Write the structure tokens for this entry.
Amino acid sequence: MPGWHTTIFPPYFVAGAIYSGFAMVLVLSIPLRIAYGLHAFITQDHLDVMGKLLLATSLLTSYGYLSEQFTTYYGGEVFDVHVYWYRITDFTKYGGIVWLLVTCNTLVPQVLWSRALRRNQGHCDGEFPYDVSV
């Protein structure tokens, strides 16, 4: 079956699962940290290390994307090459989704190389603007 390279899927799946898990931890912990004043419990150093882990798993997942493309083109099977070329260029079907995936999973996390951006909280000064008491 064209495009089916079974040896690449297990590590690719694990890297993607770890990547999405780290991302979800950050998505949940940052608002909770701000909302409940957990700055002493979830420190900037914790967020900095999680940003580094997110960058590392992003690079691993990106390596999976690139190795999948490389093995297809290096293998030289005409039908496989056509299927992958169709996926990245046909914007009426898959092209938009593929490039959105590459942008979100590979390009956007590259800002995490900067320590200042990893530790930046934006305009939040530690106070949550809404009352969260029950």
Summary: The mean pLDDT is 83. The chain has five helices and no strands.
